[in-house]
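Q: Two folds, back to back.
A: First:
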Amino acid sequence: MSGPDRYDKIIELCRRRGLFYPSFEVYGGVSGLIDYGPLGARIKVNLLNEWRRFFVDSSPDLVYETESPLVTPENVLEASGHLSSFTDPVTTCTSCSRTFRADHVLEESGLLGESMTMRELDEAYSKGVVCPVCGGKLGKPAVFNLLFKTSIGPYASSAGYIRPETAQGMFTMFRRAYEAVREKPVFGLAQIGRVGRNEVSPRQGPIRLREFTQMEIEMFFDPEDPSAGVPSTYEDETLRLQVAGSSETVSLTAKEALEKGLVGSPWLAHYLAAGKRFVEGLGVEPSEQYFLQVPPGKLPHYSKETWDQMVRVERWGWVEVAGYSYRGDFDLVNHARHSKSDFTVYKQLREPVKLVRKVVRWDAGKIRRLFGAKTGQVIAKLKNLTEEEINEFSKKGVLEIEGLTLGPEAISLSEEEYEERGRRYVPHVVEPSFGADRLMYAMIDHAYTVREDRVVLMIPRRLAYPSVGVLPLMAKDGLDVFARQALLKISHAGFTVTYDEEGAIGRRYARLDEVGVPVAVTVDYTSLEDGTVTLRDRDSWRQVRVSSDKLTHSLDRFIHGGEDLESLGEPLNKEG
């Protein structure tokens, strides 16, 4: 029998050392839900803060962080299309009555089930597909809505849902946010928060969850000036792109992908490149990630164009860790229609433009003779005709108002010239959306290293928790006192730090390596003589000696500055 593979070893490490494990494990657990333990919770916080630093703090006066509720009223998700379109295909076994994701069953048979439409799934299942558990026949695929439903307050009629994405909270607050940022024509709203999706059959451990953390940006811009405000920071970043319908990737810079029309929006190209750089900073090499274009038949209901960022992990192969969508004006238009609110913005033109428009005029006396008591209602409606209604009158020669028909005997159509000094429009949106939990696992998967039969978790130094370990060589002779003083000094300087005096020094080094602590500070007998300490690098196991007076400065250069250990002090001729 073969031993555990890399994934099993990672999961065992995470359970044993308090990174993450199944939720409610004492009751048998619930698939699709995980707990983050004492170490994992803080590493995840560091990951969220890294995303915040990279995408929000680095874009001052452009991207603003927001927060909105987890529970969302039903009418919001009706307007957004999630009530009707947020679904997965399911199938039920006619023998054992178990339910499965219809596309996943085909995936396990070697078919590309997730890329199939419902019609293609129906066709595949019509030929007979067997249950992966009992071997019985699986029924015809059906759609299953992924929303978690609840009620707001004690009344069942006040339906609500756990939000499936943070995006809708940002769309519904758009007017308030637009005014708060002084009506900028280009700006982004960002949000980090929990979301819920009632997955049919969660699998792949932390890769597919029913509750998880999203990190999203909604970038609003003028569709007639889509390049406005786009930074040139990443335009020369090389992207590996797999266009829908192709089995090969092409390598192009973000600028080239935009110019060749492979990517349809400047903001979309910018965030693809930024996302690649961000994930690379988590320890995933460029060769281990690419962008997969979602084919038209599989696009989310709100999207004009979507690219999935794929990252390779040992057990599962290529998995999606982020999605980048050009949502157009879908969300704002639909929320405006359903809420009767104004989601347009005003744009001043550089030069006034002379235009001609059609105008409906009426004879109030004739309308009064025709409609009597309803005259006021009819005229009020005539004063607020939409452009669509005016065009309809131009074609048909009659108007239907309040159940009444008006013709040429009472109303007429004319043209008038006017000067337009500005225009109103609904902003378009590009959305990069990251799954924090998948990124967390991908980072750990790429960091998991075995050296001389010892596990070393090489996660980026600035994301590790704790970031420093303090170890007295012996817990006596004043070494422990010196070490605890160093502990307080390091902690007061803002580093997360742990203290360990139990067991042999090599065993303690191994414990720190296993959870990814980047640097160990060792206090030995020389420390008592000259006030120096040893710094040990988690990845190379090399050591240098530094003055305790410069200790916190040296740690800052190593952890946050990314400097090599040898630049911090006098090298020692030993590893371990």
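A: Second:
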Amino acid sequence: MPNTEKLADAFGKIAPSEQTLAARPADLNGRAVVLFNNSKLDPEWGELGVIFEVVEQALRSKHPGAKPVGISLDLLGPGKDPLGAGFDAVMAHRPAAVVLALADIGVSQRTVALALRLEARGIATCIIAAPPGGGFARAVSAIQLPGLPIVELAVSNTTPRESASALASHEVGRIIDSLTRDAAASSSGDTLGTGLGTGLPDPLTGAGNASTTAEQYYEALTTVRLGDGLPVIPPRQQAVNAMVDTVGRAPEEVLFAGLVPSGVPVTVERLAANAVMAGCKPEWFPVVLTAFEAMTAPGYRLAQAAITTHPGANLVMVSGPLADALGISGGAGCLGPGHRANLTIGRALNLTLTNVGRIRPGEADLGSFGSIGEIACCFAENRAASPWSGFNEDHYDGDATCVLVHRTEFPHAAVDTLSTRPEPILDIIASVAATFGGNSLYNPAELVLLLNPEHARLMAGCGWFKQDVRNYLFSKMQIPASKVIGRGIGSNRGRPIDPKEMLSVVDNADDIIVTVAGGPGPHSMVAVPWGARLSHRKIPVH
């Protein structure tokens, strides 16, 4: 017989947008029109600069008196506030209209944010997008500014100049027209609204469906493409309240307000509801809450990390005595199946991002492939098997338990069955960490190393401590800049690169986090970072 208790709200209602499109001028003659290149039309990204050549030519043809102004600024670049710098650079020209390009991958979020800010200031704006950024732009627009002109071109950095020119020429009329009163604005993706707005199916809202079964809830979730594709436990209010009671926090307290496209704030209760859906026990919720709060640190860049094309995971490590008490595994198979605490703690975090943020694959989630780590990636430090102090002791004290979170790829194996000295093992680990395919070679960030107990004991037996491991790896995790320049992704080091220098994947040795985890065997693991800073917090004990 179904449980008749009311369901808690795990999603939040999306408020109708109060913003409307800026009034379009009758024409653009005598007015400045900014062509804003967010860096994706720069030569280092291919031959897409021709897009703005086509736009400018069409603009001069249809509005001969218009005054095109080119601005090139990397919205993901160095500086305290590149988005604010971009807005100020545009406003300095007092434009009547702005064309923004290119919303394609990682820069899509800030490009759309800039468009919304400009429209709010009364400036007609059009976004030129490319896959998969078009889906993200439409998903955000459908909620925050319906009707925002978005013109998608099927281009990438490998598109030849002639092809890019032809594609731009085919759509340029729509781009120019969207900036004036005779605009035939492109669809902003309102057809994506199912499950994005307030109209979630009844079994998900808890309204009038006290008899909802687990099967009905799962089917309703699948209908609106939320959740992670796996069955969930309906978040009945009593179970959610039990979660909240373990942390002594107000259910309505806002933990994070910046998820896109929904704009719905993550509250303590919504996080708890998603923890219930994930299968967490109430006693694990303090870990979930602490981990989520760690993810809200500015350097973690949660809003962008949640939607990036990068196949990453929100890696969670728990260090300290509470890990054992709660049954969070740091031993054999700790990153795999069979460990309920590990899997459901990690899953609760990711369900929250998807369900509250409405971050769905192919729309707001830009992931090219996605990752199993986006379902769950949580483990404990194996303090019992470690010859060294734990992360909790290094940063807090031995009695404290803390949570570390980092946006990384799912950890990679580094195998060595033959070595009897630390150096050759660490050489293998360094080769896994310093890879042309990883983001950190171009955008250095902290790196998490999971040494298996056998490798750790061998190193300790040779008189090595964690700092020795860090120092050695720092000297090895480097690649000549001459082999890096012009491949992979653009460098975000904030300085010119000398082709003769060696580039490291971390800024200094202390950015290498050495942990001991897993069971016996020859494999250690390397968590290659996405580019955000890691964050850690002590778990409060109530």
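Q: And?
A: The first strand starts at residue 32 and ends at 37.
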